[in-house]
Design a protein that fits this description.
Layout lengths: L1 H22 L1 H35 L2 H17 L5 H11 L3 H11 L5 H10 L5 H10 L5 H22 L17 H14 L4 H35 L2 H15 L7 H9 L1 H9 L5 H14 L1 H12 L7 H36 L2 H6 L3 H34 L1
Length: 399
């Protein structure tokens, strides 16, 4: 019976979206173009180098090398192997869903157990600094200093999620062998891992490129689909209806009703939610609390990407989802605590020395980086898509 109910719900949902697109073709097209522009200019060129590099490092045993070195602090802190440090660092640097992609890769390589993978994926999916500081802080709030606060709350909140999730499935902890720091053993693990992989360098690099491009194509599809769904839900007044349910909850925490609609939009797609939040008439602190929660929750768009990646393994989705809720709560609480020391006090000090117009209009590293991606990102994306096509065509011809 449950299976039949699921089938009816999925079919009804797909039919509803199809009818909504037919009724609102222009708005659906605009939302689709917005999603593909985000993927084309920012997501693909920013994630591809990290994905390819990670694939190569895993194949050459470098991840195993750093895993041995980092085991002494990753195991006590997060109850995961040292290789998790690589996933954690890459997840923060490149952004979601890199953490899920690399966790799944380590699980497929049998470098981590199922429970360890579920712990790891719960706290290694984070937004990258470019999106937090350039897109949100500068692009929406026009304030780079705000990006420091958002980044600290986001990454520190993820750290606390890792601490909490270390107790998930903790029975496995008693079976782990405690390892000490050993460079000799690290090099030995690196060599053994490399020897197990008999592929030549050209094959490894080709596989890394094609696998990364295929993953990014899937990510692009989810970004476009959820961009359209989010827009249609707004047009059909479904998002405002859901937002009314949160107004009573917001009133308990002293948040204004105007933030309920951006909050719901952010639960579906982070970028739109953050943009709508920045345009409300609420106070800056209230806006930051909502943005921090939305960033930590990842949005259903990113969660769907993660679910698709994890479906290729035996890693369950629920620990990741639980981690997203915890991350949103931790990040919001940290924003409430750190707003004054990390932003208000610093802003008051700098505003006394630097004219406000100079501060806002001065070019920064992050704004220039965002402009660089928007300008050269499409060329980079097109180039590597062609490379991927050529590699797959050559393999099909030789195979």
């Amino acid at each position: 019976m449950n299976g039949k109910v699921k089938s009816i719900l999925f079919a009804s949902g797909a039919l509803f979206i199809g009818i909504a697109i037919i009724q609102n073709p222009k708005e659906a097209l605009d939302a689709s173009q917005r999603g593909i522009s985000l993927w084309w200019e920012i997501v693909f060129p920013s994630l591809l180098p990290f994905f390819i590099t990670a694939e190569v490092l895993i194949a050459f045993g470098v991840v195993r090398f750093f895993g041995v070195l980092c085991e002494p602090f990753m195991r006590p802190l997060f109850n995961v192997p040292g290789a998790g440090s690589f996933v954690w660092a890459m997840g923060m640097a490149s952004g979601y869903p890199s953490g899920a992609k690399l966790t799944a890769r380590l699980r497929q390589e049998k470098q981590i157990s199922k429970i360890e993978a579920e712990r790891l994926v719960s706290f290694t999916n984070a937004s990258n600094p470019l999106f937090i500081i350039a897109a949100i802080s500068i692009g929406f709030f026009h304030d780079e200093q705000l990006g420091i606060l958002l980044a600290v709350c986001h990454y520190l909140g993820n750290f606390f999620v890792g601490i909490c999730m270390r107790f998930y499935g903790k029975k496995e902890y008693s079976h782990q062998i405690k390892r000490t720091f050993s460079i000799k053993r690290a090099f030995q693990e690196l060599h053994e891992t490399r020897m197990k992989d008999q592929r030549p360098f050209g094959k490894i690099l080709g596989d890394s490129v094609t696998n990364s491009i295929q993953t990014l194509m899937m990510i692009g599809g989810f970004i476009i689909v959820f961009s359209v769904i989010n827009r249609l839900l707004l047009l059909m007044d479904i998002t405002p209806l859901i937002g009314q349910l949160f107004q009573s909850i917001f009133s308990i925490f002293g948040l204004p009703d105007v933030l309920s609609l951006p909050f719901i939009a952010g639960l579906f797609e982070i970028t739109l939610g953050a943009q709508m939040t920045s345009e409300t008439t609420s106070t800056l602190l209230q806006q930051i609390i909502i943005v921090c929660f939305v960033l930590g929750f990842n949005g259903l768009s990113v969660q769907a990407q993660v679910a698709s990646i994890l479906a290729e393994t035996d890693i369950r989705f629920f620990p990741y989802f639980l981690g997203r809720i915890l991350h949103g709560i931790f990040a919001s609480l940290l924003a409430l605590i750190l707003f004054k020391p990390l932003y208000a006090d610093v802003k008051q000090t700098t505003s006394g020395d630097v004219p406000v117009t100079d501060y806002v209009n001065a070019p920064s590293f992050w704004s220039e980086t965002l402009h660089y991606f928007q300008h050269y990102g499409p060329v980079f994306t097109l180039t590597f898509l062609l490379i991927g096509v050529l590699i797959m065509f050559n393999r099909s011809r030789n195979g």
